[in-house]
Amino acid sequence: MKTSIKTLFLLFVFSLAMGFLESAVVVYLREIYYPHVFSFPLVNMDYNVLITELLREAATLLMLLSIAILAGRNRAERFAFFLFCFAIWDIFYYVFLWMLIGWPATLLEWDILFLIPVPWAGPVLAPCLLSLTMLCYAVSILVLQHRRCPVMIKFRDWSMMITGSLIVVLSFTIPYLNLMAVTPDRTSSGELMQKISAFIPRNFNWLLFGTGEFILLIVILFIVRRCIKTGKSRFHNQTADFTA
Known about the structure:
Layout: H1 2-33, H2 47-71, H3 75-101, E1 110-114, E2 120-123, H4 125-146, H5 155-181, H6 189-198, H7 206-243
Antiparallel strand pairs: 1-2
Helix pairs in contact: 1-2, 1-3, 2-3, 3-4, 4-7, 5-7
Transmembrane segments: 47-72, 79-101, 121-144, 165-184, 204-224
Keywords: Membrane, Transmembrane, Transmembrane helix
């Protein structure tokens, strides 16, 4: 157990540091492109800066995945560590931004979350809620592992998790996907980028987001219930074999 606590603490520190680095980069970008305050429509970024930003986002995900693979002893633990690191990184990214520049003033302020493959936009509250859901997954799996309850993630669980995740992603990206859908096929990439930059998302689809969140929470309840039930069944079988 001591090793697990030490590993979790080091992962927390790593994710905390990544959150600060992420917020520091955003402080620099906003000083250049949004010297007063971040707001829509988006400012057209220099092409090289945009490509660098896209690659930085991809590198961030690879770093989180790599540290989880290195720290985890099995597939379930690696999955839990990845979710744990992602959640801590994302939550403290906003905490450090608020400490450094006083943004966001409220959790309902809109932000650009990712740029891959299209911009993700929504109130800050939404990604924070999603990060808390990730923490629920991570803690549940790690507690079950500690209690030696077999963590089994079946095909149905993965299917529901992917479905819920895609619905959540859709809630962030649907305004830009709709914009691209009504854009003529002959539109050049430069013109499309200008349209995306000039677009101002108005309303966040909380119903769609809540549906995805509900599915994700139901899945972790299924996993926990099944693992505890399986663990109790094995304990009773072992007890029966011993008394026999």
